[in-house]
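I am still learning, so can you show me any protein sequence you like together with the matching structure tokens, please?
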Amino acid sequence: MEFLFQSLKTLHLNIAGSRSKEFYDDASKFLRSLPPLTELEVTGWHLRIGIESLLSVHGSHLRKFTLRKPATWQTLSEHQIRQISRKCPLLEDLGVTIDGAQSHTEKAEIYAALGSMQNLKYLDLTYEVGFMGLPMIPREETTLSTGTERPGSQHHELPSYSSFDEFENKFCEGACDESFRLRNGHVQKMMVDGIMDERLACEVFQAILDAKTQNSPVLKDLIIKVIGAHVRKDLIDIVHLLSSDWRVIYETDFRRRGKLIAKEIESGRGDIGGRNRNLPLWLEPIFYRIFPAAKPKGPPRKLSKKLAAKRDKEKSQATPMWRRYIHSFPAASATEN
């Protein structure tokens, strides 16, 4: 079937949900049947809707391109981002999701690819954080309503790694059930991968900025989000418990000298995971191993019931002490597996 919307310039298409292969194939055909668009937003994008074929029709005209809330594990690679850079010379506004569990070297390649977009001014970058070593069917086969089992629908024991020490190699009591047997090292890496603070947000912006060619417009506005990608909600909540979303703006003063201004923004998830609650007991040993300075010194003080009630009320209204110790890690010291 041919769709003729000759005057159409902007399209927001929502295809979120578990879909069949045929559905995505039809969606891809529909998008390719349209006249070249200047603005395209696809919510629930899937790898079966190929980037290259999509951009072969719309790329040369696109000024805004957003792949919002893609299906789980449907993240963009450096190669796909390079395709966007080559096919979309006019692109000014981009929204994509990348794999937050990648190594720092792999992420640096993605930042360089983003910086190669000559006219890019506004970027909405989402990091999807999951587990390394998860037995997976091909990414293009996940989230399809075909009866194919997804990761987590069977009993999976994630492998150990040579870099794991004795503690990291032990199974994590709070992250083992009938579907998964995760080790402390897996949970520890997931926690580190999910941390985004002001320093790291500015470093990401600067890395993209440094990759820009000298005469191209500077990146003006970067929004960074971190989400958990997994089938178990409690494990997604761990990522959301530790992560923060940021907006970084590039400003110039009267001397035309640039500086970066970062501000934490509302995630829109509400109090998912309980950002102001105490750490889950099973998570404390791993958290204190990552941030030893956060570990309480000595036995807890004995408080009267009245004073204890007052302290509990204060804690519920304030940032918990453990959260104040969270920080990102330089590439040289972060866990790499």
